[in-house]
Design a protein that fits this description.
heterodimer, A: 190 residues, mainly alpha, 0% strand, B: 143 residues, 7 helices
Chain lengths: 190, 143
């Protein structure tokens, strides 16, 4: 016997949003704006573009919500929209244009904050140096902890193709971040 | 299967799924965890993956701004008002069937009665002043 599919926790909210329930819309934004913004920031390499993608994605949600049918999980649909919007922007960039890696971190006071920001900047640079689909795969699977099957659906690839993207991305990042990894403490074992 | 072959498999799993064993393929998880626990070389490979994960997690992006949230919510479509709903609200404001219907009926009856019986001095004769104006009958001195 196959197990019953877990009901999508967002489906009732999306249906309410489609019926004009403003509170449901606000809840959807509160739940998903953070992850959407993070994925877009990492794939595009800057927060200005990420904010525009986030606005576009939610605009499409408001347009689509009245017709929402729970054929796909809402998060899969949403991140597929985000991914496509990001890829459109990347394709529109001229070859040789550097994705402006603006200061995406908090400006904290103190040496510890500066050190943290320096590490974060190195990580961002390393992730930004990956090809776009590897960036997208890492953003979804590592940073947002999405399952591989769902991430493959978002990217429109097979699970095998997604796993290949992840493997190549991690191998590249291990090389580029080797110095930071050496500084990192060895994991404790219980 | 010798240990090196299994460590190679561990490396592949770590590259694809990362250091968190909860994300490893269920069918292989127990065997790989046992390998990590029992082999120094396997532990070194696993530690390497854990360090990478920690370094990546050092990049904590700031939360989106409140202004972005407001901008997104500003574009939420307002529920469309249907004409039938407006009419229903208007009718209810007038008191509904109990009050508004008799009031309208009375107004209609009064208006009809007054209109039929009132004398406003209307005649069939043309208004002489109006005709003069229409025909520009006023005489002006020649320049």
């Amino acid at each position: 016997m196959t197990p019953a599919r877990n009901p999508d926790p967002d489906a009732p909210l999306v249906q309410r949003a489609g019926a004009g329930d403003q509170a449901a819309c606000a809840l959807l934004v509160d739940r998903w704006l953070g992850p959407v913004h993070r994925v877009a920031s990492r794939v595009l390499g800057n927060t200005a573009d990420a904010e525009e993608v986030a606005q576009d994605a939610f605009l499409r949600l408001w347009q689509h919500a009245p017709r929402w049918k729970p054929d796909a999980k809402f998060s899969t649909w949403l991140f597929r929209v985000v991914h496509n919007l990001c890829m459109d922007r990347i394709r529109a960039r001229r070859p040789g244009d550097d994705a402006a890696l603006d200061a995406m971190g908090d400006e904290g006071a103190g040496a510890r904050a500066v050190e943290r920001e320096s590490t974060a900047a190195s990580v961002r640079e390393a992730v930004a140096s990956l090809p776009p689909r590897q960036r997208a795969a890492m953003s979804l699977c590592h940073f947002e902890e999405m399952g591989n099957i769902e991430a493959a659906e978002v990217l429109g690839v097979s699970v095998e193709a997604l796993e290949s993207l992840l493997a190549r991305a991690r191998r590249t990042l291990r090389t580029r971040l080797a110095a930071l990894m050496d500084d990192s403490e060895a994991p404790r074992r219980e | 299967m010798n240990e090196q072959a299994t460590i190679d498999r561990l490396r592949e799993v770590l590259d694809v799924h990362g250091a968190d064993a909860a994300r490893w393929p269920r069918a292989e998880r127990a065997a790989l965890e046992a390998l990590v626990a029992g082999s120094q070389d396997a532990r070194a490979v696993h530690d390497d993956a854990t360090r990478l994960a920690r370094v990546l997690d050092d990049d904590a992006l700031p939360a989106p701004s409140p202004a972005l949230r407001r901008a997104i919510l500003a574009h939420v479509p307002r529920p469309r008002l249907r004409f039938a709903d407006l009419l229903a609200d208007f009718w209810a404001a007038l008191g509904g069937g109990r009050v508004a219907a008799p009031a309208f009926a009375l107004a209609l009856a009064l208006g009809t009665t007054l209109g039929v019986n009132a004398d406003f001095g209307a005649t069939d004769e043309p208004d002489v002043d109006l005709v003069d104006v229409a025909q520009l009958a006023t005489e002006y001195a020649e320049p």
